[in-house]
Amino acid sequence: MSAQSQNPVRRITVTDIRARKGGDPLVCLTAYDAPTARLLDPHCDVLLVGDSVGMVVHGLPNTIPVTLEMMILHGQAVVRGAQRALVVVDMPFGSYEASPEQAFANAARVLRETGAQAVKVESGVYIADTIRYLVQRGVPVMAHVGLRPQAALAEGGFKAKGRSAAERDRVLDEARSADAAGAFAIVVEGVAEDLATEITRAVSVPTIGIGASAQCDGQILVTPDMLGLFDWTPRFVKRYADLKGLTEDAVKAYAEDVRARRFPGPDEVYRITGA
Ligand code: KIV
Fold it and tell me: Ligand 1 centre and the CA of 149: distance in Å?
């Protein structure tokens, strides 16, 4: 049986994503489990299994403790739920920075064990050689520049980038070097609109913005943030739903029903007849 007959929906490829530079904006969201991936898939070009999973699913304070095993487990679930979108899995802190060889061994494991189509790395300029090494060996790489959450410990928190001329130049260098090294797309996080414009003009591949204005070639958000699951969200997030309010109302109604013996009611009880 061919791959096409097993999955009649054509999966978006990294070549498709690259071809969208300057075209219709790319729609991207994070996903961490199969049922959510199934809901997002028809509407999205890219589903990112972000290491934000550590914070929004596992309740961690930052992404540093996220492991390769966690990413593989969530990556497998998302690949099961997504038929059409390109699935990208984040390489977690400590899984790619030591050497290109370390990065290749771990990225190959991610692709082999999840069935995802690409990996993402947070890309200081020093990571460009690793991106090149991975791409030359058949690993499609999405880069991530600007605010890099895995640098939160070193930088004392999550801070927007590009406040000084030196910092602007550094972010531009990160993007240019990732492009030159062969990344197929670049996430640009937490930069002002003029810097996002400059980066988007400077690179040959699509930029995907998060807190980086509509000047990018596409957008990504952390899905639980845009669905309104938390009290607090960063300023750049638009809340498209109030999942927190809906969940609280539903759980309160359930608790009241159970306490009043209204649930289960006649419609929710098995009646076994003629046994
Ligand atoms: O981990 C993540 O969810 C990400 C997005 C913020 C782009 O890297």
Answer: 8
Whether the CB of 220 sits within 6 Å of ligand 1: yes
Task: Indicate the domain borders of the chain.
Answer: 3-241
Q: Ligand 1: distance of its center to the CA of 44 in Å?
A: 15
Q: Please name the residue whose Cα sits nearest to atom 6 of ligand 1.
A: 222
The one-digit pLDDT tens for each residue of the chain (275 residues) are: 555 556 679 999 999 999 999 999 999 999 999 999 999 999 999 999 999 999 999 999 999 999 999 999 999 999 999 999 999 999 999 999 999 999 999 999 999 999 999 999 998 899 999 999 999 999 999 999 999 999 988 888 888 888 899 999 999 999 999 999 999 999 999 999 999 999 999 999 999 999 999 999 999 999 999 999 999 999 999 999 999 999 999 999 999 999 999 999 999 999 988 75
Q: Which of 97, 189, 248, 256 is catalytic?
A: 189
- CB of 185 within 6 A of ligand 1: the answer is no
Of the candidate CATH numbers 3.20.20.60, 1.10.10.10, 3.90.1010.10, 3.40.640.10, the domain formed by 3-241 belongs to 3.20.20.60
Q: Which atom of ligand 1 is nearest to the CA of 63?
A: 1
Question: Catalytic annotation on 189?
Answer: yes
Q: HEC string of the chain?
A: CCHHHHCCCCCCCHHHHHHCCCCCCEEEEECCCHHHHHHHHHHCCEEEECCCHHHHCCCCCCCCCCCHHHHHHHHHHHHHHCCCCEEEEECCCCCCCCCHHHHHHHHHHHHHHHCCCEEEEECCHHHHHHHHHHHHCCCCEEEEEECCHHHHHHHCCCCCECCCHHHHHHHHHHHHHHHHHCCCEEEEECECHHHHHHHHHHCCCCEEEECCCCCCCEEEECHHHHCCCCCCCCCCCCCCCCHHHHHHHHHHHHHHHHHCCCCCCHHHCCCCCCC
